[in-house]
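[Help] Beginner question about ligand-bound structures

Sorry if this is basic. My supervisor gave me a protein sequence and a SMILES string for flavin-adenine dinucleotide and asked me to "get the holo structure". I don't really know what that means in practice or what format the answer should be in. Inputs are pasted below exactly as I got them.
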Amino acid sequence: MSKHYVVIAEVRGGQLRQVSLEAIEAAQLAANEGDTVSSLLLGHNLSEQASQLSRYVPGQVHVLDHPDLEHYLAERYCSAILPVLESLEPYTIVLGHTAMGRDLAPMLAAHFRAGQISDVTAIHRNCSELLFTRPIYAGKAFEQKRFIEGPQIITVRPNNISLAAETGASAELIQHAYSAPADLKTIINDVITKTSGRVDLAEAQIVVSGGRGVKSAEGFKPLEQLAEVLGGAVGASRGACDAGYCDYALQIGQTGKVVTPQVYIACGISGAIQHLAGMSQSRIIIAINKDPEAPIFKIADYGIVGDLFEVVPLLTEQFRKALT
Ligand SMILES: Cc1cc2nc3c(=O)[nH]c(=O)nc-3n(C[C@H](O)[C@H](O)[C@H](O)COP(=O)(O)OP(=O)(O)OC[C@H]3O[C@@H](n4cnc5c(N)ncnc54)[C@H](O)[C@@H]3O)c2cc1C
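Answer (accepted):
No worries, everyone starts somewhere. Holo just means with the ligand present. The predicted complex, written as structure tokens, is below.
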């Protein structure tokens, strides 16, 4: 019997998130021939994003477009999503392993009495069995898990599964009505978005991160300039956040964001295990530290022993010359 895969797509800052296209690819990797892959998009003023999404989704795109859904709020999103999902009867629901996905997925799992595999970084087929790879022990090891039966829910880690390819057609758009629940316990009046620049930190291909070695908020300026030249995002260690040099929205690590960029440049970061938990899966790690014994050098592909205030501006200058 054919099964239905539904990807819950996400919009942030008016843009369809890249991880939603990765989630569509994940659904297609998991689906068998004859299965359907659809998507559900929530938010406000979604016409552009819905038509963009429709180019990647082989099935239908279901849209819940309402001013109340502009920002994620668990109660609102759940009450909007559940009737639509119940009518679609999904065998598998796929979400990005983002702040929203991490919050929403367990609620959906409880509602549908579904199994959940979180933070999936790869999907393999072993004969007829589907194996989902995910990191454990703060990224020190990987495990492979499988579902025994559906319904099932997976969340995919940004930047690990490739983007879905365009289908060459436009999926049918189906608008759904939204009515606000009467007994809301929480209301959002205003949202203040803290970002690390123009590029989303979780999805950035290049991350320039600063630690306590950056010494002040002002000390982050050279890192911001390097990130700008490289088209990357700025991140930080908890040491830098705790010291008040930057906002906690930038924190990478066990209790911060997990990033998997192509290039991670750690500046003045010692390499504590809790920091490595958030960045050790980066493809290339470059460490700049004045202490040659700093543990970060053990996992770095390239290490520069030196003062970051000398090294970072030199790199910025050289990259600027090379890239313009
Ligand atoms: C439960 C728990 C959760 C945690 N979660 C996280 C987390 O999510 N993320 C995280 O990052 N940490 C986390 N930590 C904290 C972690 O243990 C470390 O304390 C923290 O990562 C250290 O930050 P740092 O490397 O910036 O600072 P430090 O360890 O102080 O290192 C600063 C580095 O800068 C170098 N340096 C100094 N000046 C210069 C210079 N001019 N040029 C070049 N290098 C220079 C020094 O040689 C040193 O190696 C957590 C800790 C606990 C207990």
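A couple of things worth pointing out: The radius of gyration is 21 Å. The mean pLDDT is 94. Feel free to follow up in the thread.
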